[in-house]
Structures are given as C-alpha cells and as structure tokens.
Design goal:
single chain, mainly alpha, elongated
C-alpha cells in the first residue's frame, strides 16, 4: 500500500477525536453485549465511537459517519457495527455505502428492520423499481405500525419517482391515515399524503390533509402549517 493510501486508511481507522465525556456506557445494553466478543480495550474503543456517532447523527451526520467508519475498521464482522455504519451513511447522504453496510448487517443477523432505509437508498440512487420490490417483501406485512409506515412512505415516493401519482395515493390510502395516534409516524404519513395530493393537483384535498397533519404535529417535525398557508392563498385566488 502506498504511503498516501496508508495515511488515508489510518485517518479512517483513527476516526474523529473522541470527546472525553463519551465512555461507551451510553450504548444500549444489547449493543454493549454484542461487543463483548472483542478484547476489552478494543471493545471500549468501538463502543466510544458508536456512542459518539449516536450523539452526533442528528446534528453532525458526516462526523457521526466517520466515527462509525472508525468502529467498522476495528470490528467489521459485528452486525451492530455494520448497522451503525449503514444508518450513519444514510443520514450523511452516502446511499451506496449505506446499502452495502446494511446488506452486510442483514446477512449477519437476518434482521429485516433495515428494509425501509435500504429501499429509500435505492430511491436516492435512482432505482425506484428496486425500492418498490423491497416494499413488497413478505416480512413487511409483519412490521409494527411505525416501521410499516416508513416503508409505505418510501414506496409511495418511489411510485412518484416513476410518475405513478395515482398508485402513490392508493399506497398511502391503504395505510392508517386516520389513526388517533399523535406519534411521529402518523404525522409523517399524513404529510406524505398531503404532499402527494398537492403533487397530483388535488389542492383542496391537500389543504385539508396539511391541516390534519399540523393538528397532531406538536413537535413541528414538518412544515405542514406553512404548506397549508401557501395552499390557502393559492386556493383563494383560484
């Protein structure tokens, strides 16, 4: 290996600086348990990188991804490490890398919970048909409501990518749009439906659903209120 390649590989292996307050004990017990197959010092280093990634993924996804690469360089055969690398890659917009790591994790532990993210990666890479194929995987029918909803949103988005607006609407209409839950998955589902209605030119219906989204979006995870206001102005002028 050339010296510059060795330097680049060493930089990835070292990873970003680890904050002193990150000990690795921040990880969930089941994650720490999976690291016990490693020597103690190695397990602690991997745990600290994973914990740092978890702390940063929302605000600094690229740095979080670099932390997971450092963990992966040390423990590439652990599913929990490949899962973390895949999720961080997805958050940072590295979709091909996310797919590779999540596929590896799935091979190792057989988990199917990664399928919505994998499908969305296919969408981002311009392979909407493959995203729809994953959405039709038999295991999706057994997903809990939040995870199944994520897959529904991805499938509807993939159908929109293909210009299949009516099919996208039907996909969303089969989901629990009228759920009385105020959890984030219902907010995201209603927002996706309102957005697709507007895209399909059904502005009055879209306006109604943006209002219904905003009514349960206490955490303001969407811009449903702004979308509703913009639509109201447009509908009033029509």
């Amino acid at each position: 290996m050339a010296s510059d390649e060795r330097s680049a590989a060493q930089k990835v292996y070292d990873g970003p600086p680890l904050p002193e307050e990150i000990t690795g004990r921040e990880l969930a017990p089941d994650v720490r348990a999976q690291l016990k197959s490693l020597p103690d010092k190695l397990a602690q280093r991997v745990a600290r990188h994973l914990a740092a990634a978890g702390a940063l993924i929302d605000d600094e996804p690229e740095t979080a991804y670099q932390h997971t690469l450092a963990a992966r360089s040390r423990a590439p055969r652990l599913a929990v490490v490949r899962e973390a690398a895949g999720e961080a890659a997805y958050a940072a917009g590295h979709y091909a890398e996310a797919l590779a790591d999540l596929r590896a994790a799935k091979r190792m532990n057989g988990a199917t919970a990664y399928l919505p993210i994998m499908a969305d990666c296919h969408r981002a890479l311009g392979n909407a048909k493959r995203a729809i194929e994953l959405a039709k995987s038999p295991s999706v029918a057994r997903f809990p409501a939040p995870l199944k909803t994520e897959m529904t949103i991805v499938e509807a988005g993939a159908r929109r990518d293909l210009g299949q607006l009516d099919a996208a609407l039907r996909t969303l209409e089969l989901a629990p749009l009228n759920s009385k839950s105020r959890e984030s998955w219902v907010v995201r589902l209603r927002y996706a439906y309102a957005d697709t209605l507007e895209q399909a030119g059904k502005e009055r219906d879209a306006l109604s659903w943006f209002h219904r989204t905003n009514a349960i979006d206490a955490e303001e995870i969407t811009d449903a209120a702004e979308r509703a206001a913009a639509l109201e102005a447009r509908v009033a002028d029509s």
